[in-house]
């Protein structure tokens, strides 16, 4: 799934890194939704029989996932990875004397990991920041040992649909494109994973006004970085129009925001020959949809 550079939704990794470098200390205060989804992903590990020796928390942000994984698997070596060095500096504060983890700055599409060296790769809300999910999955598959496990969350197409509606007033991109669950399942199969299981869950988060939502998105680093975004100020008229459109959705005194969460897990199976061009083999029983 190579994304052409002229794609209006293309995300440049260097721009993503700079955005999260600037987010810094504000992330933890503004990322309550991020934390709630991470907790739900961690719960899914309770039903998995796995005693990993090496764990990677990919897209660790402030390291809360790495901290939780260190506590859950005290005998494992945990590596916290993130594109942003500034995020990793904050992650150091999550360390405990007997629950320490390594911190490594890395691009998810070029992991500095030896082949077949990881037992569990955990990733919470990182994948939607990558221009090429196939490239990420290929790298993760390369790094996982046979029988290793990938567990991740990302955002689905209904995420921020209210904000997308409010800003559908011009030809610019105002909200990122989020990939469908089934397309991600296809990508996992293409890149050598066995029997991926995909689920979705829709959360509704409420805000008193549009400014509060925008403040939280800014504080958590969740800004519009798409190639087709408007450069510079959008103008007072555009802002007022978007606000009016969003206000038309107000219900019971609050503005609602939809967050479609995609949960995925897949095992690193034996590498099989690639399918013929244009052919994707998808076992229907491996894709489950829960609302």
Overview of this protein structure:
The protein has 291 residues and is α/β, with parallel strands linked by helices. It has a domain at 13-156 and 178-202 and 261-274: Vaccinia Virus protein VP39 (Rossmann fold, 3-Layer(aba) Sandwich), CATH 3.40.50. It has ten helices and seven strands. It has helices at residues 13-23, 26-30, 32-44, 64-72, 85-91, 133-143, 161-166, 181-190, 210-219, 236-247, and strands at residues 54-58, 77-82, 102-105, 118-124, 144-155, 193-207, 255-268. Strands 3-2-1-4-5-7-6 form a seven-stranded mixed sheet, sandwiched between helices. Helix 5 (85-91) links the parallel strand 2 (77-82) and strand 3 (102-105). The radius of gyration is 19 Å and the shape is globular. Mean pLDDT is 88; it is low at 272-291.
Helices and strands, with pairings:
Layout: H1 13-23, H2 26-30, H3 32-44, E1 54-58, H4 64-72, E2 77-82, H5 85-91, E3 102-105, E4 118-124, H6 133-143, E5 144-155, H7 161-166, H8 181-190, E6 193-207, H9 210-219, H10 236-247, E7 255-268
Helix pairs in contact: 3-4, 6-8
Keywords:
alpha/beta; Rossmann fold; 10 helices; 7 strands; disordered C terminus
User: Strand percentage, roughly?
Assistant: 15-25%
How many helices? The count is: 10
Output the CATH topology of the domain at 13-156 and 178-202 and 261-274: Rossmann fold
What share of residues is helical?
A: 25-40%
Q: What's the total number of strands?
A: 7
| Main pleated sheet | 7 strands, mixed
The dominant shape is: globular
Instruction: Give the oligomer, counting copies of the same chain as homo and different chains as hetero.
Output: single chain
For the largest sheet, list the strands in their spatial order: 3-2-1-4-5-7-6
As a whole number of angstroms, the C-alpha radius of gyration is 19 Å
Going by CATH, the homologous superfamily of the domain at 13-156 and 178-202 and 261-274 would be Vaccinia Virus protein VP39
CATH architecture of the domain at 13-156 and 178-202 and 261-274, please? 3-Layer(aba) Sandwich
Low-pLDDT stretches: 272-291
Terminus-to-terminus distance: 27 Å
Q: Give the CATH class of the domain at 13-156 and 178-202 and 261-274.
A: Alpha Beta
Overall pLDDT confidence: 88
> Structural class of the secondary elements?
alpha/beta
| H-E string | HHHEHEHEEHEHHEHHE
